Hints:
This protein is an all-beta fold. It has no helices and eleven strands. Strands 2, 4, 5, 6, 9, 10 and 11 form a seven-stranded mixed beta sheet that branches.
Amino acid sequence: VQLVESGGGVVQPGGSLRLSCAASGVGFSEYIARWSRQAPGKEREVVAGISKTGGVIAYNDFALGRFTISRDNAKSSVDLQMNSLKPEDTAVYFCNIGGSGIWDNGDYWGQGTQVTVAS
Length: 119
């Protein structure tokens, strides 16, 4: 199983980034997918999650109205569109699949992609 994230980088406050995660070696459509993040000195937290079919989506409070999670099971991918980025969004963002609920930690993780929001 391999999850490969892309799309991180440095962006100014108020800017946007789109993160993508490509899965291989796994029946992607069988898994809940989520994006989590970990900022320096802080615990990892779920940003947003999406059910197997995409019918159920949930966001952490800080992501509501700014971030959008989506998945394409035909491409085995899950994306996170991030708008109106703030310095406090700076973190390593991880793709994660598995688990029995959106707020769980799944079995499989990507290596992470750095997002830095700074002027």
